[in-house]
Specification:
mainly alpha, 2 domains, 64% helix
Length: 162
């Protein structure tokens, strides 16, 4: 088999792998029936649907010719590392890492760190724009998650909140 669209082929394989992983993971929970769904029903259906869509994308990539084969280029390491690093930093700052001695710094600090680190993925830092975006995200997240949904998230570090 000759792949005619390399990017779509790899994306389809990724969809299939993630979908099958979710569907398989859902089998560890009671599935139930359509009228009485168990906790594994929804992830099983969504995982199977994602795997099916991935199979369709793989089939299309193998059958339909694209100009130049839509080859996969080199890895974009800077955006990949910045986005992953931003998400890891967000999790560590929000919950802390007691085994290493890093305390929780709260939702606001975690959002500012996430926004500034992720903004480095696109190139030079535009401080004012990123600061405004981080402020809007911090206020919106505080209102949505802490005030409206009443989730027990620390907004500020313990040494500030008391």
């Amino acid at each position: 088999m000759r792949v005619k669209n390399q990017k779509d082929f790899l994306a389809g394989l990724l969809f299939m792998a993630v979908g099958l992983a979710f569907a398989w993971g859902a089998t560890h929970y009671p599935i139930g029936r359509g009228a009485h769904m168990g906790p594994g029903y929804f992830p099983l259906v969504l995982g199977a649907l994602l795997a099916f869509i991935g199979a369709l994308v793989v089939f299309k990539a193998a059958v339909i010719q694209t100009e130049g084969g839509n080859k996969v280029g080199p890895w974009a390491w800077r955006p990949l590392l910045c986005i992953l690093g931003a998400n890891f930093t967000f999790g560590i700052l929000l919950a802390g890492l007691p085994s290493v001695g890093i305390p929780s710094l709260g939702l606001v600090a975690a959002i500012y760190a996430l926004t500034f680190i992720a903004s480095l993925a696109s190139g030079p830092l535009r401080f004012l724009e990123v600061f405004i975006l981080a402020s809007v995200l911090a206020v919106g997240s505080s209102l949505a998650f802490v005030e409206l949904l009443q989730l027990q998230l620390p907004l500020w570090p313990a040494f500030v909140a008391g």
